[in-house]
Amino acid sequence: MTPSKVINVQPIEKREEPHPDGSLDVHSIFPTIQGEGPFVGQPAVFLRLAGCNLQCPLCDTEYTQGRLRLSVPVIFDSILDHAPPGGYRPLIVITGGEPLRQDIGPLVRFMIDKGYRVQIETNGSLYRDLPYMSGVLTIVCSPKSGKLNPDMVKRIDYYKYVVKAGDVDVYDGLPTHALDHPVARKVARPPEGFYRDRVYIQPADTQDAAENQSHLQAAIWSARHFGYTLCIQTHKIINLP
Ligand code: SF4
């Protein structure tokens, strides 16, 4: 979920009803080091699910092509195939696109039952029934629209905002837009009283060194003035996906 100057034209895909056999549309599965958010630096396997219910213009994530419809056990086996050597259980990150567009509840339960920690990265606009597992299931929301799903808000552990210079609200330090997604007033905020240090502020990457320096300064300003946590995309620094 990172920005570039290429305009995203991938089609909007609606929330899916659960598939009778529990299968999911998978875009890709790959190992990496988690570069963002509460588990930064930890070995992880990413499961990128296909399709998104939004179409942020500056989104440069490819989440549409080459998808495969896979069952939960096959997805889990593929994740194990990508686990790092050493026999320990890596963090499993379910992302997209928008992962909650599909019914991932059975998959999440399956992985937790096998002893894995799961992180979900969502735009927060859709709801799915997910197990309550503090410390085992972590939900990180990066809002892109003006309104979040109120049931999902109750489950969100962390928020993440991508900040561009010149697009920061001086009253709360958060961006007014997200990846240039059109919103009625401004992009959705965390609920009143939410922990400031659980809000990550990440500078936008607009593929221009001078611009990126301005975005970084804007993110630093926001973190220092409002108590948010600065988040740099570590995986890019170490050249991992
Ligand atoms: S919600 Fe995320 S994945 Fe979907 S278009 Fe926006 S940035 Fe891309």
Concise structural overview:
This protein has helices at residues 72-81, 105-113, 150-153, 209-226, 234-237, and strands at 24-33, 43-49, 68-70, 91-95, 118-122, 137-141, 158-163, 199-203, 229-230.
Structure overview:
- The chain contains 5 helices and 9 strands; from the N terminus they run E-E-E-H-E-H-E-E-H-E-E-H-E-H.
- The protein is 19% helix and 20% strand.
- With 241 residues, it is an alpha/beta fold.
- Strands 3-1-2-4-5-6-7-8-9 form a 9-stranded mixed beta sheet.
- Bound molecules: iron/sulfur cluster.
Q: What is the helix tally?
A: 5
* Sheet/helix structural class: alpha/beta
- What shape does the CA trace take? globular
Quick one: biggest sheet? Answer: 9 strands, mixed
Poorly predicted runs are none
Number of strands: 9
User: How would you write the strand order of the largest sheet?
Assistant: 3-1-2-4-5-6-7-8-9
